[in-house]
Amino acid sequence: xxxxxxxxxxxxxxxxxxxxxxxxxxxxxxxxxxxxxxxxxxxxxxxxxxxxxxxxxxxxxxxxxxxxxxxxxxxxxxxxxxxxxxxxxxxxxxxxxxxxxxxxxxxxxxxxxxxxxxxxxxxxxxxxxxxxxxxxxxxxxxxxxxxxxxxxxxxxxxxxxxxxxxxxxxxxxxxxxxxxxxxxxxxxxxxxxxxxxxxxxx
Length: 202
Description:
This protein is mainly α.
């Protein structure tokens, strides 16, 4: 009987998780559709909740802010980026480690189409750009120790050089994603990132 109870509880937990994932995806897809159709600033949380068939209270249980409705949990971006860079073998160079982290974050999008719409909204909405800049600065601070340990720099210049490397990687990601949006999503965003980084380092 105890084994049956554990199995049932496990099955219920799995069903609960799947239900939450489906609801979260439905809310995100509804939000992205409305943002694309009528603009981010013009779309209200109440409208998203209504069209997704949930209450605003339920919506905020899944997503803490309106910004999170654009790309899911943006803090997850920072966690995946830092974790991937930290997991790279010691012999991997700093630029390669950063590229691995950025590649991992681009894979968080559900589809190429969603990635394109999210980047388009991000680059064309002033309020979203401002929020992204603030988060990006926090992400860069979090990456500082991970990048410093992969660089052979004198102690008095280590912070400055590591910050410059991180800022360059983020700037290249911005340039690549803006170009990708301008091109209508043609090509691969990481190929564009490589081209931008080569131009800076070359």
